[in-house]
Amino acid sequence: MQTMLSGIKPTGRLTLGNYIGAIRQFVEYQDEYEMYIFIANLHAITVAEDPAELKRNTKDLIALYLACGLDPKKVTLFLQSDVHQHAELGWILTCHTYMGELQRMTQYKDKTAKGETGITAGLFTYPCLMAADILMYDADYVPVGVDQKQHVELARDIAERFNNRYGETFRIPQPLTSKVGAKIYSLQNPTKKMSKSETNPKGTIDLLDDPAQARNKIKSAVTDSLGIIQYDPIEQPGISNLLTILSSLNGEAIESIVQRYQGKGYGELKKEVGDVVYQFLSNLQERYRAIMASGQIDAILKEGSEKASWIAEKKIRKVKKKIGFQIVK
Ligand code: AMP
Ligand code: TRP
Fold first, then answer.
1. What are the tens digits of pLDDT across the range 43-75?
2. % helix / strand / coil in the chain, to the nearest 5?
3. How far does the centroid of ligand 1 lie from the alpha carbon of residue 12, in Å?
4. End-to-end CA distance of the chain
């Protein structure tokens, strides 16, 4: 069985975009792959985080993952900080990465280009830690958004360099970006990604939004004045976004939805999308509340980190041996 791994930072609240673009795929893949999903809290502190908020977001994130259908029997789910080997391998790989490589990472480049101050050294070197996360478990595939692809490619380069220098140690990973629903757009500005950091709350649907409010957000979604329901992301980004959301949540092909709506108005489409979103969030949040109340999160994380630590320890021992840290047999 091939291995798949992904991490998500516990910063901000999860949106419908995160569900459709990422989590839904993890749930689908869990039967076919050996899956590792972790909460990337070491990455979260590359920017200043309020401890209480970090704690709340972390717990919400795990509960939402489980509520979305990740099955801890199939997936190794853990907190990155519970497996200390990540930081250890992160350092070793930092010493096998060139400054020039990190300077080319767009995320860092964008921040410096904008003249942002207070950029930490952690933010600069974090792609090395991300490489450690991936290479530790010999991941074949890393499902990520397009913005993260560059980091997975760097992980490949580091792995190849290490293998060349010390002999076969790491498997070479591949980034995996999703097809349908890879990008859900803001409801208020449908050419912009729906994002945790969006300033206009009407543009974003959080997975923990009140379902009735979420339905209203769909009702007031920005559309166009053409009056035809068809999938045309260039001319009709708002309507196309609503079609994508509906198709992702009810499993119906976009062409079939378009057929059903021939000669009908935007109001009717918005009503159906709103109702489907309402139902989806209500069911999800019911499961979320049950999981939060059940007290099972601690046990799931404990089991996940034990399994991950076992594999990570084997890998770090191998690495240490290769680089000459181990002096007794
Ligand atoms: P982020 O929220 O940027 O930390 O991303 C976490 C995961 O969700 C990544 O795999 C992203 O590609 C995915 N994601 C975030 N926002 C969206 C969106 N609006 N549409 C589709 N996927 C998204
Ligand atoms: N850097 C990723 C992000 O900002 C999160 C992440 C950390 C990750 N380690 C990873 C993703 C390993 C995939 C694999 O979204």
1. 999 998 899 999 999 999 999 999 999 999 999
2. 55, 10, 35
3. 12
4. 32
Hey, how many other C-beta atoms are within 10 angstroms of the C-beta on 117?
Answer: 6
193 belongs to the catalytic site: yes
Whole-number pLDDT of residue 146? 79
Determine the Cα angle at 40 with ends 4 and 76, to 5°: 40
Token pair listed for 81: 């900080």
CA–CA distance, 239 with 187 (Å, rounded to integer): 10
Whole-angstrom Cα distance, residue 2 to residue 30? 11
Quote the CA–CA distance of 206 and 186 in Å, as a whole number.
12
Cα of 317 vs centre of ligand 2, distance in Å, is 24
Distance CA 256, CA 252 (A): 7
Contact 152, 113 (CB under 8 A): no
DSSP-assigned letter for residue 105? -
pTM for the structure as a whole: 0.91
From CA 212, how far away is CA 202, in angstroms rounded? 13
